[in-house]
Amino acid sequence: MQGIYGKGTIENETMNKITLRKARKSDGKALLSLVNALADYEKLKRPTRRAQKRILTDTFGRRKRIEVFLVYAGNVPAGYAIFFETYSSFLALPTLYLEDLFVLPDYRKHKIGIALFKACVNEAERRGCGRMEWMVLDWNKIAIDFYERIGARHLKGWLPYRLVRKQFLRILKRK
Q: In the annotation, is 41 catalytic?
């Protein structure tokens, strides 16, 4: 990734040492620091210790549920993308679902976000996925503008719904 960064708030020497790769078990602490930074950015509660342990288990354990790309600027974890597969019955192909794409504010405008996104697109292509999907918070104009700039379009006609764990038992108890 050397050479694609313009001048910015980060010293060029650090920006020239950009590494993007799949996360390894030894990256656990870095991953959790970035997840916490995203929670702070979105004004959400940080994951509890138990939740953080599940993130590490789901990323690096025997039964991997998620995969992660990490970006380091020098030795500093600067951004990450969490993704996993879902499936489209109509395409009869997997879908790469992008759960998180986050770059620390000090490292934005250095093409780290697009590099992470391209890594995910490349992964979707490599896996033979029929599509890639993700959600964006309606207030996150920076992300919306980013995705629209690269040609992604907001889906109309599909409404996101969510059921949280606490609601599972209520539904399962219904007759």
A: no
